[in-house]
Amino acid sequence: MAAPRRSSTSKSAIRQVPWRDPRPAPIVLVSGPEDVCAERAIAGLRDYVRAEDPAVEVTDLRADDYLAGTLLTVTSPSLFGEPRLVRVFGVEKASDSFLTEALSYLEAPQEGATVVLRHTGASVRGKKLLDAIRSGAADAVEIACPAIKRDSDRYDFAAAEFAAANKRIAPAALRALVSAFSDDLTELAAACQQLIADVDGDVTEEIVRRYYGGRVETTAFAVADTAIAGRYGEALITLRHALASGADPVPLVAAIASKLRTMARVAGLRESSAAIAARIGVKDWQVDRARRDLAGWNEESLGRAIQAAARADAEVKGASRDPIFALERLVTVVATRSEFGS
Asked: Which of 7, 57, 165, 189 minimizes the number of CB atoms within 10 Å of its CB?
C-alpha cells in the first residue's frame, strides 16, 4: 500500500500508519487517548515483527519509572543479532532521564531495533520528543489513535471490526450492538470479537439480541427511542429497567438530547440523506431515522423538548439533588410532547 500523501503545508514530516494495519519502523509513535486502538496497534506490531523473525526479543519499559541507560542496553544488538522490539509506555509521564536518552537515541537508532513509544496525549510532557519524532527523525512513523466519541465513529469502528474479519452483520444488528455498548468502546470491541468468533454465518439482529438482549433493551438509546416515539408508558418502564441495571442518568440524558438535536438539524431539509449526512457529520441511516422520528412533532414541541433536555443535562450533572426525577421529567416532556404536568 502506498504511503499517504503529505500536504506541502503540513508541519509534520512523519509518515502516518493506520492502527488497523501497523507497520514497524525504527521509531513508532503510538499517539492519542483511545487505548483500544493503541493496544491493537501495538499487538499488531508485535505480531508483524514476530512473523518476520520468531526470535525477536520483546522488552517493555515504563518511561515514568525509568532506569538510566536501559534504552540503549535493550536496543543494542545481541551476540546472535536477533531483532529487538522495545515497547515504551507512559511517555506522557516520562522522567527527565528517559526524555534525554530518547532524544539522543533518535540521532542514532540501533540497527534491527523497533522502538514503540506510547503517548496518550493526556499531558504536554515529552512535547520536545514528540516534535523531534514528527519532524521526520529516525525514519519514524506515527499511529494516531484519536478518541472515538461520536455515535457515527463507534458505528464505523464496529463495522470495521466485522469487515476486517470478513464477517457480515445486518445494519439493524450493527445499530443494536453499537447502541448497547455506546458508553464503552472496550466492551463494544469485545462484543464484536465474541460475535465474530461464535457465529458461523451472518450476524443478525436476532443474534445480537440473543447475546446481549438485556443490555440492548435497557440501553440509553432504547429509552430515547421509546420516548421520542411518544410511547410514554413504555418509555418509563424502559427507563426504570435501565436505572435498575445500573445505568447512569448522564448518558441517558445525553442519548435523548443527541437524538433531539439530530431531529432539529434534519427538520425541514429536502436534500438526500447522503447530502445531509455529509453536511452535519452523521451517517445516512441516522438522517433516515431522524426523519422517521419527526413524525408527530412540530417546531414548538421539538423546541420544548430540547429545552427540557438542556435543563435535565444540568440537573443530572449536579444542579439538582434528585437526578432521577429530572430524568423522569425529561422523558415525560419528550414522550407526551407537552409541558411537564400539563
From this structure: 7
